[in-house]
Structures are given as structure tokens and as C-alpha cells.
Give the backbone structure.
Amino acid sequence: MNTHPGYYLLPALLSGCMTSPTQVNQPDTERYTESFIRTQVVMPSYQLIWHTCRNHLSTGNWPNRTGQTDSSVFSELTIIRTTDRKFQQSFQLSGVNTPIQFSLTREGPTPESYQILIQANFDQGDYTHSVNFGCSHDGLTEEALTRLTQHTTSVFNLYQTAKSGYVFPSQKTQPVTDDMIRAALCTLLTLTPEQCRA
């Protein structure tokens, strides 16, 4: 049987990526996967999004520079500023080590409402998820961060599906281990061994 990490990883991810944060019986492998993606991918980019959002509330300014450096898996973030009549202003964050792009769009002047669009580009086509949230001075909300983590996990699932080309077997497969998940995610995110052990 093929032991490609994605072969065992995806059934677990697909069954767990949209698990409600209030569910207490979530398997360890699913919690581990969400935790890994949350800390290594979602949290750094979300912090940058939230910082920009709060700065806009305070000053009315949107980012207009490119090449912003971040210490996360998104080693280089490119901010692209756009303006249109309908959506006011928006900007985009692109990670060089992943297929994911985060776009933050201001939906209107009042209330301070925003949409995060998560997009991945595959050979077989594109896939997107959107997460809406209200921007305020209260800071990061657990609910918004959890939803963003779940949606990002789902995009990674589809990316790995397209990358591997495997047809997934039934649930009667070899149990997924933490080592399998870590190996597959480290490969997917092109992390160094040091980053994977962190």
C-alpha cells in the first residue's frame, strides 16, 4: 500500500477540519492538525490582518507598501492595494511558501465590516473560502480565529488532494499518527526540520 503522507492525512483532515470548536470528543489527530495549521499558518497572518484592520480604524489609512517581512511560515508577505467603488479599499497578503492568499476587503463604511477571502490556486482549478468578521478595537476574537483556522485547514485539504492525485480509500485505513500528520504538513508547508520540531 502506498505510504505517501497525504494518503493517510486527508481522511482525518476532511473529517475534522470543520469540527465545531465546542465539540469535546474531537480525536487527537484532528486537534493536532488544526493546532499546527493555526499556530504555523493562520495566527501570524491573522495578526497582521488584525493589526492592519485596527490601524485603519484608528487612522483611516490602508497599507500601501509591499515586501513586508514576517517571521512565520509566510517568510515574505506582499501587500497589494486596490480600490473600487463598491468595496472601498482592499489589500492582499500572499505567502511564498504556500498556495494560500488572504484578501481583506472592507465591505462598507458603517459598521466596520470586513471579509477575509482565502484562495488557493491548483492545476485543476481554484478554490476559495470566505470569512466575515467585524473589525473593532477589542482585538482578536477567538470565534473569528477558530473559523479562519477551520477554513484554512479545508483549503489545505483540497491543495493536498490536487497535489497527490490520490483517490481516498474508505475509513478502514491504517490509523493516522501524529508523526504522519507532522511529516505531511511539513512537506506541504516546505518547513525546515528545525521549524517542524518547534
About this structure: The CA atoms of residues 69 and 76 lie 5 Å apart. The two ends are 31 Å apart (CA to CA). The helical segments are 5-16, 28-59, 142-164, 178-189, 193-197. Strands lie at 68-69, 76-84, 88-95, 100-108, 113-122, 125-134.
